[in-house]
Specification:
By secondary structure, the chain is an alpha+beta fold. It is built from 14 helices and 14 strands. α3 links the parallel β5 and β6.
């Protein structure tokens, strides 16, 4: 892209007006990093991802675009408190994406290391994308040459043809679009700021984190292998058991091209409904959860349903769903879509984003990356969202939930899930966690 050129936003449209959409990733970098060197490394890393040199613009019909700007907006700020408190504070402050703000950096100095906290709007990319940016900062610190990543949006033409929506579903969505086109309107950034502020005036969140060390993760891997299932299925089962009763469980799915390591959005999702069967042991439940997950992942219609569904809904109607739920906007079509998306109604019980093993490296020279933690945004249609990533043989877990009224219940859910993992044993009968 050249300055002033633009690319139409499709898949990312749902992120534009979301009032809760900040991705957080913490990296601990070992080494005595000067402010100057860190600032230069961050600037170099950001400048090497074209999407971070874009602002969001709209045309007269309400279509949205990534539009190239002269240079990226880079915000670097020191902090001296718990990094999770910074996430909680910053998620309440809307990104100024209309003027090109898509990312923020926060730095905490420790003895012989720094905590580098990256907060990214989902318009900048998904969780994996942020890990690649973190890796580029480390490369730049060590004086390595960075590879420029041009803006590469998800190509809906690559979705398997057999995954298309049913004719009946397309008829329903066309009807909604017709109603919307005759009654609806486009929204602007000022209205978004007002809705965003109203949303957070009555909300707070809490973040819990846990880490499995190398021996604990090794035992977990052996347990999964012995059961013939994935670690993700084991973890999902533990969360389903802790939730009690029937749970709607959403799982993020990556559709990123294997060769592309740039910022951008390559996540979709599938969902299952499950109630832990107390008449069976944990292993039997885990097998059932695993089967249900892969029944969706192996089915093109299920795996790509969300992508097709969003492509069929009028872009401004996607926006209006948020304003209907949280901005006092009254419109029947917007209200219908808001309910379809799960805004303002009973949210999905469990949402899980597992980045699996991060394709980044611990040591690359003078400076090394020693730990990574990941916290997904508590999107409006999720009651609780769990972030998982594996780095250097350690598995990081986070729980992002609403504060206040249900906080004691959420804390009990988290502790119960961790106890469940503690009770799992390896082949020698030794608990995974001690």
């Amino acid at each position: 892209m050249n300055n002033g050129t633009r690319l139409r936003i499709q898949k990312e449209r749902t992120h534009i007006f979301s009032p809760s959409i900040t991705i957080a990733m913490l990296g601990v970098i070992q080494g005595d990093v000067s402010d100057h060197d860190l600032g230069a490394a961050i600037a170099a890393a950001v400048s090497n991802h074209e999407i971070l040199s874009c602002k969001i613009t709209f045309d007269e019909q309400g279509e949205a675009f990534y539009e190239k700007t002269e240079q990226p907006r880079i915000h670097i700020e020191p902090f001296d408190r718990d990094w999770k408190a910074v996430v909680q504070e910053q998620e309440t402050i809307a990104f100024d994406w209309i003027n090109g703000e898509l990312i923020r950096f926060f730095v905490k100095r420790q003895q012989d290391s720094i905590q580098l906290l990256i907060l990214a709007h989902h318009l900048a990319g998904d969780g994996l994308a942020v890990s690649y940016l973190l890796n580029d900062v480390l490369h730049a610190l060590n004086g390595d040459e960075l590879i420029y990543k041009r803006l590469q949006l998800f190509d809906s033409k690559t979705v398997p043809p057999r995954s298309k929506l049913t004719p009946w579903m397309r008829i329903i969505l066309r009807g909604l679009n017709r109603k919307w086109n005759s009654t609806g309107r486009a929204f602007n950034y000022t209205e978004y700021q007002e809705m965003y502020q109203s949303y957070w005036n009555s909300r707070t969140t809490e973040i819990y984190c846990e880490e499995l060390n190398e021996s604990q993760l090794s035992a977990l891997k052996k347990t999964a292998k012995r059961q013939g299932i994935t670690i993700n299925s084991l973890l999902t089962t533990a969360f389903a058991k802790s939730a009690q009763g029937h749970s709607d469980i959403g799982l993020a799915v990556s559709v990123r091209p294997k060769s592309y390591r740039g910022m951008g959005n390559y996540a979709t999702g599938v969902s299952i409904r499950y109630c832990y069967n107390k008449a069976h042991d944990f292993g039997a439940n885990a097998h059932e959860v695993h089967k249900r997950i892969y029944k969706k992942l192996d089915n093109h219609k299920a795996k790509f349903f969300l992508l097709h569904f969003m492509n069929e809904v009028s872009p401004t109607l996607i926006d209006a769903a948020y304003f209907s739920a949280y901005g006092g906007y009254v419109n029947k079509a917007a209200h219908t879509v808001s309910n379809l998306f799960g805004y303002g109604v009973k949210p999905k019980s469990i949402s899980i984003t597992n980045l699996t093993t991060l394709d980044i490296h611990k040591s690359q020279g003078k400076y090394s990356l020693t730990a990574v933690s990941f916290v997904p945004p508590l999107v409006p249609n999720a009651r609780r969202i769990i972030g998982i990533c594996t780095f250097e043989n350690r598995l990081s877990l986070s729980l992002h939930v609403a504060g206040k009224d249900l906080l004691s219940e959420e804390k009990a859910f988290w502790e119960s899930a961790l106890r469940e993992l503690t009770s799992l044993q390896n082949e020698n009968g030794i608990p995974i966690m001690k």
